Amino acid sequence: MNPPEHSDPEQEEAPAFRILRAAGIPARRLEYRYHPAGGIRDAAGQLDLPARTIIKTLVFTPGSVAPEDSEPGTPVIALMHGDSKVALRKLERLAGIRHLRPCSPQEAEAMTGYKTGGISPFGLPGHCLICIQESLRKLEAIAFNAGARGVVAVTAPDALNLLAGRWGDCAGRPLMI
Length: 177
Prior knowledge:
By secondary structure, this protein is α+β, with helices and mostly antiparallel strands. It contains 4 helices and 10 strands. The strands form 3 sheets. It has a 5-stranded mixed sheet with strand order 5-2-3-6-9.
């Protein structure tokens, strides 16, 4: 079963805001001009937020390095500080999956229903396993894609408890941002 496509933020509210509002969790909406090659550095600069507080939503799948050699399996979503890499071995241990590989943009879009550059941790299909970097809890506020490119939700880290994910350490080395 394919997850539903999420529509244009100008025509409809981004999915994360609907979910957070239904749970009674306040969130502030910020927007920036999305650039395909912009990444966290570009978003952080436009939003005037520290990269550490912007959460990357990264999609992994069980299998080998080559997508054509891999069996489809449970997508693993890693939520990580914007200024850090995911340590693949730590993520595999946290997820309880022996071999994971990063998804291609096309695979990530097919597995989540969101476009890359706008993948939100909220509103994902129920079969996704979400692994959350434990140090995100220590932040005063977090920012993450709300389900559309260029649309960010800012809220308290406690909002991530709605995801019923696995908290743990999957952080690798810091990035030079």
